[in-house]
């Protein structure tokens, strides 16, 4: 069984994918616009043809799927946080600072009892991230 996050960026999907590619080295794997669909949109669904119907991108070993959804312009990721494990302090600093650009630091990156580097940040799309160097328990 596999669980993968599917993020709805509410009209900012392409911007978000491009941000993650640049900021943390994500690799875009798939992107289809509404206007490229082989089938028409369901009745009542009025998403502009240039918006993203479905995208997927890879961060390390994980694939994240995403779309523009209803395109209201304000993604809401309440109660959802993505945790990203990094190998060392330099990578933790780089990833944390990149995700924090235009966002809000919720817990500064620092040493904790459970990790040499841990921090929490909300990126400019409102998506929460925890950056951690995992240690064996």
TrEMBL record:
Gene3D superfamilies referenced in this protein's UniProt entry, alphabetically: 2,3-Dihydroxybiphenyl 1,2-Dioxygenase, domain 1
CDD domains membership: PhnB_like
Segments forming domain PhnB-like: 3-132
Name of the protein described by the UniProt record: VOC family protein
Naturally occurring in which organism (per UniProt): Uliginosibacterium silvisoli
